Amino acid sequence: MSIEELYDDAARERLVEEPPKRVDAPVRLAFERDRARVVHAAASRRLAAKTQVVGPQTDDFVRNRLTHSLEVAQIARDLARALGTHPDIAETAALAHDMGHPPFGHNGERVLAELSADCGGFEGNAQTLRLLTRLESKTFDADGASVGLNLTRATLDACTKYPWPRSEATGPHGVHADGTPRVVVKFGVYDDDRPVFDWLRAGVAGRRRCVEAQVMDLADDVAYSVHDVEDGIVAGRLDLTSLDRAALWETVRSWYLPGADDATLDSALDGLRAVGSWPRSSYDGSRRSLAAIKNLTSDLIGRFCGGVQQATFAATESVPLVRHRADLVVPEDTEVEIAVLKGIAAHYVMQAGDRVALMERQRQLVAELVEWTWARGADGLDPVFVADWDEAADDAARRRVVIDQVASLTDASALARHTALAPTGWARASAASRQVGS
Questions:
Q1: Distance in angstroms (rounded) separating the CA atoms of residues 58 and 437
Q2: How far is Cα of residue 375 from the mean position of the Cα atoms in its chain?
Q3: Helix, strand, coil percent content, the chain, rounded in steps of 5
Q4: Rounded Cα–Cα distance for residues 163 and 210 (Å)
């Protein structure tokens, strides 16, 4: 049976039925069309100017949300193909997984969550679902309501990292990949988006994620664990040949694995150091040295994905890894090695004192943007959001429109809008000089 035959009509169903394409158009299968729609979405382009760990304009080499998403997509596609699940679905979910992030990454998310507490909250993954099914412009239903990109059920399910509403979310714990503490509860759907969520989860009981979503999530974890270390090396912030294990293990336990003992973490690091491409000399900026780091990146990604592939095959035997028929299996030693890599980046790159002051300025800017946009009403919105404001039934619904507007901004456009919306008498020059994106 081919991979396409493992996905039934329900998996390919769209909220709005679409007629066949012209006979002279290139033939594309349903999940290929989904991928193309996400690639061409405006929200995807905006990721190029949104913070990943540090501001995207700070350095030519630093990763932004778009380059990170492309790297996650490549890992997800290769892993999906190796596992026998649909590569187009996994890749599309990876391309879309950060679309809902606001300006300044998780730092901006924290502010929007606080300021939207009375209208349903804010969460980047729930915002991604809202973008895919409502805010992006592509398809409208018979009643004239936007259904966003009108993706298939299987693709939308794969994009749902946290398949539950805010009311069922557990308390936040740990830290994000950018080093900020988790203060936002994780959930995947706002209350007013429940109809489409219930549709895409039809026939699925409880919180179980489809295997394509699990592939996307693992690819995300692998990508930032490896690439943050790579960025730190090239930036001269860390040296893999000279690691302070005692201080490093304190960071790993504080951020990721609170119960891990020294022996477990030592064993994980020793396993990583045994990889043939692990550097034996310090990075010196030469082309050969950079190539060595790239080889290490490739080897580590292969190590982690290979370990998951073997463990998953051993556990599932002949069960097809399609939608909700099976689950990904991540070996414990792989989880620990990934945590050690993330800990290296956290300890040597993300704990710099200058980031703390910068992030406070970013939060203030986002909060003022929400306040000033709310005060302006429809006059403070982009044209695409004006109809939403006019059709809102109450202040809670109007507040949601303001949150949607601010969340759509990039780091640079947030700064520009902040200056443009500043009340009369505000020291605009002072606001512009905050350098919140650097």
A1: 8
A2: 31
A3: 60, 0, 40
A4: 10
How far apart (Å, rounded) are the C-alpha atoms in residues 11 and 15?
11
Task: Please name the residue ranges forming H helices in 142-210.
Answer: 153-158, 194-200
Specify which residues 165 forms β-bridges with: 189
Q: Which residues of the chain have pLDDT under 50?
A: 54-58, 427-434, 438
Please provide the distance, in angstroms rounded to a whole number, between the alpha carbons at the two ends of the chain.
52
Helix (H, G, I), strand (E, B) or coil at 54: coil
Size (the chain), residues: 438
Report the number of secondary-structure helices (H) and strands (E) in the chain. Answer: 19, 0
CATH number assigned to the domain comprising residue 173: 1.10.3210.10
- Determine the 3-state secondary structure of 296 from DSSP: helix
Distances (CA, A) of 359 to 2, 67, 366, 390, 408: 49, 22, 11, 34, 19
List all residues 6 or more positions away from 245 whose beta carbon is below 8 Å from its beta carbon.
262, 265, 266, 269
Q: What is the DSSP letter of 50?
A: S
Query: Same structural domain for residues 248 and 187?
Result: no
Residue labelled with tokens 């293990």: 249
**Residue 216, Cα to own-chain centre: how many angstroms?**
10
The distance between the two most distant Cα atoms of the chain, rounded to a whole number of Å, is 69
Q: Within 13 A of 42's CA, how many CA atoms are on the CB side?
A: 10
What pLDDT does residue 175 have? 66
Residue 169: half-sphere exposure toward Cβ, Cα within 13 Å: 24
DSSP 8-state code for residue 140: B
Q: Which domain holds residue 216?
A: 1-222+354-438
Instruction: Output DSSP code: residue 85.
Output: S
- Residue 355's pLDDT is 64
| CA gap 223, 238 in Å, rounded | 18
Burial of 434 (0-12, 13-18, 19+ CB in 10 A): middle
* Angle (nearest 5°) at CA 49 between 45 and 50: 105
Statement to judge: residues 368 and 337 lie in one domain: no
Instruction: Look at the pTM and tell me if it is higher than 0.70.
Output: yes
Long-range contacts of 332-337 (CB under 8 A, 24+ apart): 333/268, 333/271, 333/307, 334/304, 334/307, 334/308, 336/257, 336/260, 336/264, 336/265, 336/268, 337/268, 337/271, 337/272, 337/303, 337/304
Shared-domain flag, residues 342 and 358? no
Per-residue pLDDT at 181: 67
Residue whose structure tokens are 């990292």: 161
Domain final residue pick, 297, 326, 353: 353
pLDDT value for 105: 84
